């Protein structure tokens, strides 16, 4: 029997500073009523100047290592899902490796926006199933406040900072990632992107004025895509695992908008008490949102051995991905 890739420890970190809807009311033409009714978000966490993406990842991984009773030198691989890397080079994963002293690991980033954790877990799964590596850390970590335009009310109300991590190891008892799926559509990349600051349009101070070095989004278009493809991605992994929708114990969706999550639950015919929601506290933390929600659920004792856990995400690319776990 080939080994499965099972999560044996989780951890998460959000910075202490809160940016509430009331704070945003003072900064922009918006209201708590509009934000909450359109998104479900009450507040988000902001890292500030002294906390970097890797700092948040390190705190989340420390907790995951502790829960899994693994020491840093046992780790074979560090995969960081992030679109807000500390440096343009090298990867944030290499910075994390240094900060946590993981001398035996290979470290690299997976850049797939909000699908970063699921795709990182898919990479971990393939290395574990092929018996190349045994213990892998996957972390989703983002400092979205650094790429958010706080003059744009249609985006800045959504995003927050944080990190969530998992230690994944080989399991021969049928537990772990049962199936995984990912797809993208690069023709739609301008629906959600940061146009400048990369190689094509290198940094220029003028960008700060026109906002092109910050995240830009056509919200309603992304919304429609999310509702459609999150459902399709969910059904795909359930079918690939030979299971049916009613078998699912818990859904841990990307935390972008409560209306998207409720729409997904309705189409999946899953009641909301089986769906993890924490976006009211943290907003959308991109690749960190699913592992933070998974960790909070795990620490709350809501996960039992054998539970079937569906994770599903969508984001810039456009990209969408899902993963089905037997806990
Ligand atoms: O990780 C993936 C990230 N992306 C997403 O999750 C985005 C998915 N999309 C969404 O969540 C929603 O489209 C938003 C929450 C971004 C926007 O909600 P919406 O219901 O689609 O609003 P809208 O963009 O259609 O705007 C409706 C109105 C507009 O006013 P007019 O033109 O009808 O007069 C906006 O100017 O709401 C206005 N508006 C706001 N008003 C108060 C937009 N943002 C705000 C705001 N406060 N913050």
Fold and architecture overview:
By secondary structure, the protein is an alpha/beta fold. The chain has helices at 21-27, 32-39, 53-68, 92-99, 116-129, 153-156, 206-210, 219-240, 258-268, 279-282, 289-299, and strands spanning 4-13, 17-20, 43-46, 77-81, 106-110, 135-143, 161-171, 176-184, 192-193, 216-217, 250-253, 308-315, 319-326. Helix 8 packs parallel to helix 9 (258-268). The relative contact order is 0.19.
Spatial separation of the terminal alpha carbons = 18 Å
Q: Largest beta sheet, briefly?
A: 5 strands, mixed
Proportion of residues in extended strands: 15-25%
Order of helices and strands: EEHHEHEHEHEHEEEHEHEHHHEE
So, the CATH homologous superfamily of the largest domain? Answer: Thiolase/Chalcone synthase
Structural class: alpha/beta
Counting structural domains, the number is 2
SSE topology sketch:
Elements: E1 4-13, E2 17-20, H1 21-27, H2 32-39, E3 43-46, H3 53-68, E4 77-81, H4 92-99, E5 106-110, H5 116-129, E6 135-143, H6 153-156, E7 161-171, E8 176-184, E9 192-193, H7 206-210, E10 216-217, H8 219-240, E11 250-253, H9 258-268, H10 279-282, H11 289-299, E12 308-315, E13 319-326
Parallel strand pairs: 4-5, 4-6, 11-12
Antiparallel strand pairs: 1-7, 2-3, 6-7, 8-13, 9-10, 12-13
The chain binds oxa(dethia)-CoA.
Name the descriptors.
34% helix, five-stranded mixed beta sheet, 11 helices, 327 residues, binds oxa(dethia)-CoA, globular, Peroxisomal Thiolase, Chain A, domain 1, 13 strands
How do you describe this structure in short?
This protein has 327 residues and is of the alpha/beta class. The protein contains 11 helices and 13 strands.
């Amino acid at each position: 029997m080939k080994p499965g890739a099972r999560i044996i420890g989780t951890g998460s970190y959000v910075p202490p500073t809160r940016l509430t809807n009331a704070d945003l009311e003072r900064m922009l033409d918006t209201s708590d009523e509009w934000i909450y009714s359109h998104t479900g978000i009450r507040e988000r966490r902001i890292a500030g100047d002294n906390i970097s993406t890797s700092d948040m990842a390190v705190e989340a991984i420390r907790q995951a290592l502790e829960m899994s009773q693994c020491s840093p030198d046992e780790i074979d691989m560090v995969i960081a899902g992030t679109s807000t890397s500390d440096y343009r080079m090298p990867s944030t994963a290499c910075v994390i490796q240094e900060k946590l002293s993981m001398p035996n690991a290979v470290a690299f980033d997976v850049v797939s926006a909000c699908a970063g954790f699921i795709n990182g877990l898919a990479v971990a799964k393939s290395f574990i199933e092929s018996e190349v590596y045994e213990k892998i850390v996957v972390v989703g970590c983002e400092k979205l406040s650094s790429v958010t335009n706080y003059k744009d009310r249609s985006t800045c109300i959504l995003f927050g900072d944080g990190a969530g991590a998992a230690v994944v190891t080989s399991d021969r008892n049928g537990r772990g990632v049962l199936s995984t799926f990912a797809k993208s559509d690069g023709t739609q990349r301008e629906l959600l992107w940061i146009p400048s600051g990369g190689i094509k349009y290198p940094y220029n101070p003028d960008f700060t004025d026109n906002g092109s070095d910050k995240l830009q989004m056509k919200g309603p278009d992304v919304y429609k895509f999310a509702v459609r493809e999150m459902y399709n991605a969910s059904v795909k992994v359930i079918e690939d695992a030979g299971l049916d929708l009613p078998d699912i114990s818990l859904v841990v969706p990307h935390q972008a908008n409560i209306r998207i999550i409720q729409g997904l639950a309705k189409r999946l015919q899953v009641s909301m008490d089986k769906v993890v929601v924490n976006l009211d506290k943290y907003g959308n933390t991109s690749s960190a949102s699913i592992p933070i929600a998974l960790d909070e659920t795990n620490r709350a004792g809501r996960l039992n051995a054998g539970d079937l856990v569906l994770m599903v995400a969508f984001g810039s690319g456009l990209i969408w991905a899902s993963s089905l776990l037997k806990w």
